[in-house]
Amino acid sequence: MKTGIIYCPRHAGLKSIRKRWEKIAGVLSDYEIEYDLIESDNAQSISRIVAKLIHEGYDTIVVCGGDLALNEAANCLMRAEKEVRDRVALGVIPNGLMNDFASFWGFTDKEIEYAVASIKERRVRKVDAGCISYRNRQGEKCRRYFLNCVNVGLVAQIQRLRKNVRRIFWSRRLSVVISLFILLFKRRDWKMSYCINYEHEEHRVVSLCVGSALGFGQTPNAVPYSGLLDVTVIMLSPLGRLTYGAGMFLLGKILNSKDVKPYRCHDITISCPKKTPFSIDGHELQGIDTSSEPAKISVEKEVVNFIIEKR
Known about the structure:
- This protein has helices at 14-30, 44-55, 67-79, 82-87, 100-104, 112-121, 154-169, 172-183, 239-250, and strands spanning 3-7, 36-39, 60-65, 89-94, 124-135, 141-146, 149-153, 190-196, 199-211, 229-235, 260-265, 268-271, 278-280, 283-284, 295-307.
- It contains 9 helices and 15 strands.
- It is of the alpha+beta class.
- It has a 15-stranded mixed β-sheet that branches.
- The protein is globular and about 55 Å long.
- Helix content is 33%, strand content 32%.
């Protein structure tokens, strides 16, 4: 089988990028994995690279990157014919700011050997692909797939701000801290209406997460092979209760908070004010307009071959 590895460097100094790859390459050599390497310039180039690897007959495509890079690869696969998806397996070596889908399978950026050993074994499982369908501001119908989650509201706003702040400061940790500080002076809730399990709800919502997997900790019980989506709606609450809810989130018990509504469903439609922030697998999703037609989030069961943890 032909294996292609797409290396997505982290935003760091050139020396750090080189050292990181040398470490990964050393582990790949130890496990005697033969591969062709392509380095991506940015996340948008990954789709083009995946299409090229598919055309050239590669059976295993490994993304050495984070959730965003994996999302681009998955979207390229979902645009391909079913016979291509049945032949090609997608793998991951975590190497990004967010590696939530990888961590569901026990892969972390600190345990390179475990991820590489799993690629060597090539134990494949078909996983779900979530899908958000919407109209953009030009009225065009759009569709985007995800492996982890779609966020609407506060979490999506944090991810948007972090990206903009990082262009200035470059530090990942500093960009998150500054983004949280900026949010103290910005709007932190949105009026949303949504239809889920044939029930219509309308609330002032802090954050809404639709997850096929962990959802960055907001949908902790979701599994990416059930054919279902987990939805967590965080309602507007007094500052004290919001602080308490943040503590529950950090402890991994967010679903126990009184201001959180959890659901499980096949699909959900969402309408919200213009410029409400959306993100998909940790990346800002721009140009959504739900004023004329709600955005619909659904799931396609077991449509992507994914290399999971070794036995």
